[in-house]
Amino acid sequence: MKASWNGQIVAESDKTIVIEGNHYFPPASINKNYFKNSATHTTCPWKGVASYSTLEVNGETNEDAAWYYPDVSDLAKGIKGYYAFWKGVEIVK
Question: What is the pTM of this model?
Answer without folding.
Answer: 0.95
